[in-house]
Amino acid sequence: MNLNPKFPLYLPGVKNSSNNNISIIGADISEDTTLLGYYISNNGSIETRIHKRYNTSDYADFSEILTQFIKEENLENVKRLGISVPGPVLNGKSNPIRLKWALDVQDFKRDFGFEQVDLLNDQEASAYGIALLQDSDIEAIHTSGHLEKGNVAFIAPGTGLGEAGYFYDGEYLRPFATEGGHSEFSPRTMVEVEFYQFLNNIYGIVSWENVISKTGLFNIYRFLRDVKRHPEPEWLANRLANGNFTEEIFRAAMDRDVLICKITLDTFIEFLARESNNLTLKLKATGGLLIGGEIANTIRKYIDKDKFYEKFKISDKMEDMLKNIPIYVINSETSSVNGVALYTAYFKD
Fold first, then answer.
1. Out of 164, 254, 269, 286, which could bridge 154 as a Cys pair, Cβ 3.0 to 4.6 Å?
2. pLDDT grade, residue 4 (50/70/90)?
3. Given CA atoms 63, 64, 67, 73 in this order, what sign does their dihedral have?
Protein backbone atom coordinates (compact mmCIF):
# COMPACT_ATOMS: atom_id res chain seq x y z
CA MET A 1 0.00 0.00 0.00
CA ASN A 2 1.41 3.36 -1.03
CA LEU A 3 0.75 6.54 0.93
CA ASN A 4 -1.79 8.92 -0.63
CA PRO A 5 -0.08 12.30 -1.23
CA LYS A 6 -3.32 14.09 -0.30
CA PHE A 7 -2.54 13.15 3.31
CA PRO A 8 1.11 14.01 4.01
CA LEU A 9 1.45 12.43 7.45
CA TYR A 10 4.14 13.22 9.97
CA LEU A 11 6.03 9.91 10.12
CA PRO A 12 9.63 10.66 11.12
CA GLY A 13 10.59 6.98 11.20
CA VAL A 14 10.20 6.68 7.42
CA LYS A 15 13.74 8.06 7.06
CA ASN A 16 15.22 5.45 9.39
CA SER A 17 16.34 2.34 7.49
CA SER A 18 16.11 0.23 10.66
CA ASN A 19 12.29 0.50 10.37
CA ASN A 20 12.31 -1.33 7.05
CA ASN A 21 11.34 -5.02 6.75
CA ILE A 22 9.85 -5.19 10.25
CA SER A 23 7.10 -7.69 11.11
CA ILE A 24 4.05 -6.09 12.76
CA ILE A 25 0.72 -7.25 14.12
CA GLY A 26 -2.02 -4.63 13.98
CA ALA A 27 -5.30 -4.94 15.89
CA ASP A 28 -8.55 -2.98 15.74
CA ILE A 29 -10.67 -3.81 18.79
CA SER A 30 -14.37 -2.98 18.86
CA GLU A 31 -17.34 -4.11 20.92
CA ASP A 32 -18.58 -6.41 18.14
CA THR A 33 -15.51 -7.68 16.29
CA THR A 34 -11.75 -7.54 16.58
CA LEU A 35 -9.77 -7.34 13.35
CA LEU A 36 -6.14 -8.44 13.34
CA GLY A 37 -3.61 -8.02 10.58
CA TYR A 38 -0.07 -9.13 9.91
CA TYR A 39 2.16 -6.64 8.09
CA ILE A 40 5.68 -6.07 6.87
CA SER A 41 7.08 -2.53 6.74
CA ASN A 42 8.50 -1.74 3.32
CA ASN A 43 9.94 1.44 1.78
CA GLY A 44 7.92 3.92 3.81
CA SER A 45 4.66 1.97 3.69
CA ILE A 46 3.33 -1.41 4.84
CA GLU A 47 2.44 -4.65 3.07
CA THR A 48 -0.64 -6.52 4.29
CA ARG A 49 -0.11 -10.27 4.54
CA ILE A 50 -3.15 -11.33 6.61
CA HIS A 51 -6.46 -9.90 7.84
CA LYS A 52 -8.63 -11.96 10.19
CA ARG A 53 -11.77 -11.16 12.24
CA TYR A 54 -12.79 -12.50 15.63
CA ASN A 55 -16.03 -12.16 17.61
CA THR A 56 -14.93 -9.96 20.52
CA SER A 57 -17.49 -11.27 23.01
CA ASP A 58 -16.15 -14.83 22.65
CA TYR A 59 -12.95 -13.90 24.52
CA ALA A 60 -12.17 -12.86 28.09
CA ASP A 61 -9.50 -10.39 27.00
CA PHE A 62 -7.45 -9.29 24.01
CA SER A 63 -4.49 -11.52 24.93
CA GLU A 64 -6.64 -14.58 24.18
CA ILE A 65 -7.40 -13.30 20.68
CA LEU A 66 -3.78 -12.36 20.05
CA THR A 67 -2.54 -15.77 21.21
CA GLN A 68 -5.02 -17.55 18.94
CA PHE A 69 -4.10 -15.39 15.93
CA ILE A 70 -0.37 -16.02 16.36
CA LYS A 71 -0.98 -19.77 16.72
CA GLU A 72 -3.41 -20.10 13.81
CA GLU A 73 -1.16 -18.18 11.41
CA ASN A 74 2.11 -19.78 12.65
CA LEU A 75 3.69 -16.40 13.29
CA GLU A 76 7.13 -16.31 14.85
CA ASN A 77 9.39 -13.53 16.11
CA VAL A 78 6.94 -10.72 15.36
CA LYS A 79 8.73 -7.52 16.38
CA ARG A 80 5.97 -5.00 16.97
CA LEU A 81 2.31 -4.75 17.98
CA GLY A 82 -0.08 -1.87 17.35
CA ILE A 83 -3.55 -1.81 18.96
CA SER A 84 -6.48 0.45 18.10
CA VAL A 85 -8.99 0.81 20.96
CA PRO A 86 -12.45 2.44 21.21
CA GLY A 87 -11.60 4.82 24.04
CA PRO A 88 -9.01 7.18 25.46
CA VAL A 89 -5.36 6.12 25.84
CA LEU A 90 -3.35 7.53 28.74
CA ASN A 91 0.29 6.63 29.40
CA GLY A 92 0.13 3.47 27.32
CA LYS A 93 -3.01 2.22 29.04
CA SER A 94 -6.68 2.05 28.11
CA ASN A 95 -9.86 0.75 29.74
CA PRO A 96 -12.54 0.92 27.01
CA ILE A 97 -15.90 1.29 28.73
CA ARG A 98 -17.82 -0.96 26.34
CA LEU A 99 -15.29 -3.80 26.53
CA LYS A 100 -14.52 -3.99 30.26
CA TRP A 101 -10.95 -4.86 29.27
CA ALA A 102 -7.76 -3.35 30.65
CA LEU A 103 -4.97 -2.90 28.11
CA ASP A 104 -1.39 -1.97 29.02
CA VAL A 105 1.51 -1.88 26.54
CA GLN A 106 3.90 -3.15 29.22
CA ASP A 107 1.84 -6.32 29.69
CA PHE A 108 2.08 -7.18 25.99
CA LYS A 109 5.81 -6.53 25.89
CA ARG A 110 6.32 -8.79 28.90
CA ASP A 111 3.94 -11.59 27.92
CA PHE A 112 4.64 -11.78 24.18
CA GLY A 113 8.18 -10.41 23.85
CA PHE A 114 7.42 -7.58 21.41
CA GLU A 115 10.19 -4.99 21.14
CA GLN A 116 7.60 -2.23 20.63
CA VAL A 117 3.90 -1.96 21.46
CA ASP A 118 1.71 1.05 20.59
CA LEU A 119 -1.81 1.76 21.79
CA LEU A 120 -3.92 4.32 19.89
CA ASN A 121 -7.47 5.58 20.10
CA ASP A 122 -9.39 3.98 17.21
CA GLN A 123 -10.16 7.27 15.48
CA GLU A 124 -6.57 8.44 15.68
CA ALA A 125 -5.58 5.09 14.18
CA SER A 126 -8.17 5.53 11.41
CA ALA A 127 -6.78 8.99 10.69
CA TYR A 128 -3.40 7.37 9.99
CA GLY A 129 -5.04 4.63 7.93
CA ILE A 130 -6.80 7.07 5.64
CA ALA A 131 -3.40 7.99 4.23
CA LEU A 132 -3.22 4.45 2.83
CA LEU A 133 -6.48 4.72 0.87
CA GLN A 134 -6.72 5.04 -2.88
CA ASP A 135 -8.61 7.96 -4.41
CA SER A 136 -11.37 5.49 -5.38
CA ASP A 137 -12.01 4.90 -1.66
CA ILE A 138 -12.71 8.61 -1.06
CA GLU A 139 -16.06 9.92 -2.37
CA ALA A 140 -16.63 13.67 -2.55
CA ILE A 141 -19.76 15.23 -1.05
CA HIS A 142 -18.52 18.75 -1.76
CA THR A 143 -15.39 20.24 -3.26
CA SER A 144 -14.42 23.88 -3.63
CA GLY A 145 -12.46 25.77 -6.25
CA HIS A 146 -10.12 27.40 -3.74
CA LEU A 147 -8.88 24.81 -1.26
CA GLU A 148 -6.78 25.83 1.69
CA LYS A 149 -4.19 23.73 3.42
CA GLY A 150 -5.03 23.40 7.08
CA ASN A 151 -6.34 21.20 9.84
CA VAL A 152 -8.66 18.33 8.90
CA ALA A 153 -11.68 17.03 10.85
CA PHE A 154 -12.63 13.35 10.94
CA ILE A 155 -15.99 12.04 12.19
CA ALA A 156 -17.04 8.38 12.17
CA PRO A 157 -20.41 7.10 13.42
CA GLY A 158 -20.45 3.38 14.17
CA THR A 159 -20.94 1.44 17.38
CA GLY A 160 -20.05 4.76 19.02
CA LEU A 161 -19.29 8.21 17.63
CA GLY A 162 -15.61 8.66 16.89
CA GLU A 163 -14.12 12.10 16.34
CA ALA A 164 -10.51 12.97 15.57
CA GLY A 165 -8.48 15.61 13.81
CA TYR A 166 -5.30 16.31 11.90
CA PHE A 167 -3.19 19.29 12.95
CA TYR A 168 -1.46 20.84 9.92
CA ASP A 169 2.01 22.07 10.93
CA GLY A 170 2.74 23.80 7.63
CA GLU A 171 4.19 20.67 6.01
CA TYR A 172 2.66 17.58 7.55
CA LEU A 173 -0.67 16.41 8.96
CA ARG A 174 -0.45 15.15 12.55
CA PRO A 175 -3.45 13.02 13.64
CA PHE A 176 -4.81 13.30 17.16
CA ALA A 177 -7.71 11.76 19.08
CA THR A 178 -10.63 13.51 20.74
CA GLU A 179 -13.56 12.33 22.85
CA GLY A 180 -15.88 14.86 21.20
CA GLY A 181 -18.57 12.25 20.60
CA HIS A 182 -19.34 12.44 24.31
CA SER A 183 -20.02 16.19 24.26
CA GLU A 184 -23.61 17.14 24.99
CA PHE A 185 -26.26 17.18 22.29
CA SER A 186 -28.44 20.29 22.03
CA PRO A 187 -31.78 20.50 20.17
CA ARG A 188 -32.64 23.25 17.70
CA THR A 189 -36.36 22.81 16.90
CA MET A 190 -39.42 21.98 18.98
CA VAL A 191 -39.51 18.42 17.64
CA GLU A 192 -35.84 18.06 18.60
CA VAL A 193 -36.70 19.32 22.09
CA GLU A 194 -39.20 16.44 22.30
CA PHE A 195 -36.49 14.08 21.08
CA TYR A 196 -34.05 15.45 23.67
CA GLN A 197 -36.61 14.95 26.45
CA PHE A 198 -37.21 11.39 25.21
CA LEU A 199 -33.47 10.66 25.42
CA ASN A 200 -33.04 12.57 28.69
CA ASN A 201 -35.49 10.18 30.33
CA ILE A 202 -33.32 7.28 29.19
CA TYR A 203 -29.76 8.57 29.62
CA GLY A 204 -29.86 11.66 31.81
CA ILE A 205 -27.03 13.49 30.03
CA VAL A 206 -27.63 13.22 26.27
CA SER A 207 -24.42 13.08 24.23
CA TRP A 208 -23.99 13.28 20.48
CA GLU A 209 -23.12 9.58 20.62
CA ASN A 210 -26.71 8.92 21.75
CA VAL A 211 -27.83 10.51 18.46
CA ILE A 212 -25.16 9.66 15.86
CA SER A 213 -24.21 5.99 16.25
CA LYS A 214 -25.87 2.60 15.85
CA THR A 215 -27.69 3.23 19.10
CA GLY A 216 -28.47 6.77 17.95
CA LEU A 217 -30.06 5.52 14.75
CA PHE A 218 -32.25 3.21 16.82
CA ASN A 219 -33.08 6.08 19.20
CA ILE A 220 -34.28 8.22 16.29
CA TYR A 221 -36.35 5.35 14.90
CA ARG A 222 -38.05 4.46 18.17
CA PHE A 223 -38.78 8.14 18.90
CA LEU A 224 -40.56 8.39 15.55
CA ARG A 225 -42.38 5.10 16.18
CA ASP A 226 -43.24 5.38 19.87
CA VAL A 227 -43.60 9.14 20.41
CA LYS A 228 -44.52 10.58 17.01
CA ARG A 229 -46.58 7.46 16.15
CA HIS A 230 -45.25 6.82 12.68
CA PRO A 231 -46.53 3.38 11.62
CA GLU A 232 -44.11 0.46 11.52
CA PRO A 233 -44.96 -2.27 8.97
CA GLU A 234 -45.13 -5.72 10.57
CA TRP A 235 -42.70 -7.21 8.06
CA LEU A 236 -40.19 -4.47 8.93
CA ALA A 237 -40.53 -5.11 12.68
CA ASN A 238 -39.63 -8.77 12.07
CA ARG A 239 -36.58 -7.84 9.98
CA LEU A 240 -35.36 -5.27 12.49
CA ALA A 241 -35.63 -7.84 15.27
CA ASN A 242 -33.63 -10.46 13.40
CA GLY A 243 -31.27 -8.59 11.08
CA ASN A 244 -28.68 -5.82 10.93
CA PHE A 245 -30.63 -2.76 12.09
CA THR A 246 -28.72 -0.19 10.00
CA GLU A 247 -28.87 -2.25 6.82
CA GLU A 248 -32.57 -3.03 7.25
CA ILE A 249 -33.44 0.66 7.78
CA PHE A 250 -31.37 1.57 4.71
CA ARG A 251 -32.96 -1.11 2.51
CA ALA A 252 -36.50 -0.28 3.63
CA ALA A 253 -35.91 3.40 2.81
CA MET A 254 -34.20 2.78 -0.55
CA ASP A 255 -36.08 -0.26 -1.88
CA ARG A 256 -39.51 -0.07 -0.22
CA ASP A 257 -39.90 3.70 0.30
CA VAL A 258 -40.95 3.15 3.93
CA LEU A 259 -41.68 6.59 5.38
CA ILE A 260 -40.51 6.01 8.95
CA CYS A 261 -37.19 4.69 7.66
CA LYS A 262 -36.73 7.63 5.30
CA ILE A 263 -37.42 10.11 8.09
CA THR A 264 -35.04 8.19 10.36
CA LEU A 265 -32.20 8.41 7.84
CA ASP A 266 -32.97 12.03 6.94
CA THR A 267 -32.89 12.98 10.62
CA PHE A 268 -29.69 11.02 11.26
CA ILE A 269 -27.96 12.65 8.29
CA GLU A 270 -29.04 16.14 9.38
CA PHE A 271 -27.65 15.52 12.86
CA LEU A 272 -24.43 14.19 11.28
CA ALA A 273 -24.14 17.40 9.24
CA ARG A 274 -24.71 19.48 12.38
CA GLU A 275 -22.09 17.72 14.50
CA SER A 276 -19.68 17.72 11.53
CA ASN A 277 -20.16 21.50 11.47
CA ASN A 278 -19.41 21.68 15.21
CA LEU A 279 -16.24 19.60 14.92
CA THR A 280 -15.02 21.50 11.87
CA LEU A 281 -15.46 24.85 13.59
CA LYS A 282 -13.75 23.72 16.80
CA LEU A 283 -10.74 22.42 14.89
CA LYS A 284 -10.80 25.25 12.31
CA ALA A 285 -10.53 22.44 9.77
CA THR A 286 -10.02 24.46 6.60
CA GLY A 287 -8.22 21.45 5.10
CA GLY A 288 -11.38 19.37 4.93
CA LEU A 289 -13.92 17.12 6.62
CA LEU A 290 -13.69 13.32 6.37
CA ILE A 291 -16.69 11.13 7.23
CA GLY A 292 -16.00 7.49 7.97
CA GLY A 293 -17.41 4.73 10.13
CA GLU A 294 -19.65 1.73 9.53
CA ILE A 295 -22.92 3.67 9.29
CA ALA A 296 -21.62 6.17 6.75
CA ASN A 297 -20.39 3.29 4.60
CA THR A 298 -23.78 1.58 4.78
CA ILE A 299 -25.99 4.59 3.99
CA ARG A 300 -23.73 6.69 1.75
CA LYS A 301 -25.86 5.99 -1.33
CA TYR A 302 -28.85 7.48 0.48
CA ILE A 303 -27.08 10.74 1.36
CA ASP A 304 -28.26 13.71 -0.70
CA LYS A 305 -24.94 15.51 -1.13
CA ASP A 306 -26.44 18.93 -1.81
CA LYS A 307 -28.73 18.76 1.23
CA PHE A 308 -25.89 17.59 3.45
CA TYR A 309 -23.71 20.48 2.29
CA GLU A 310 -26.49 23.01 2.89
CA LYS A 311 -27.06 21.70 6.43
CA PHE A 312 -23.32 21.54 7.11
CA LYS A 313 -22.51 25.15 6.22
CA ILE A 314 -25.24 26.77 8.38
CA SER A 315 -23.58 29.06 10.92
CA ASP A 316 -24.22 32.30 12.77
CA LYS A 317 -21.01 33.95 11.50
CA MET A 318 -18.73 31.31 9.91
CA GLU A 319 -20.58 30.34 6.72
CA ASP A 320 -17.92 31.95 4.51
CA MET A 321 -15.33 29.56 5.94
CA LEU A 322 -17.57 26.50 6.03
CA LYS A 323 -18.84 26.82 2.47
CA ASN A 324 -15.34 26.31 1.04
CA ILE A 325 -14.38 23.24 3.07
CA PRO A 326 -14.16 20.00 1.06
CA ILE A 327 -16.20 17.08 2.42
CA TYR A 328 -15.48 13.42 1.70
CA VAL A 329 -17.01 10.07 2.68
CA ILE A 330 -14.48 7.32 3.34
CA ASN A 331 -15.24 3.82 2.08
CA SER A 332 -13.04 1.50 4.09
CA GLU A 333 -13.44 -1.16 6.78
CA THR A 334 -9.73 -1.52 7.53
CA SER A 335 -8.44 2.04 7.96
CA SER A 336 -8.08 1.68 11.75
CA VAL A 337 -6.10 -1.57 11.78
CA ASN A 338 -3.96 -0.45 8.84
CA GLY A 339 -3.43 2.94 10.46
CA VAL A 340 -2.18 1.60 13.77
CA ALA A 341 0.20 -0.72 11.89
CA LEU A 342 1.52 2.24 9.86
CA TYR A 343 2.01 4.26 13.05
CA THR A 344 3.84 1.37 14.71
CA ALA A 345 6.11 1.01 11.69
CA TYR A 346 7.18 4.61 11.24
CA PHE A 347 6.11 7.08 13.89
CA LYS A 348 9.14 6.55 16.10
CA ASP A 349 12.50 7.54 14.66
1. 164
2. confident
3. negative
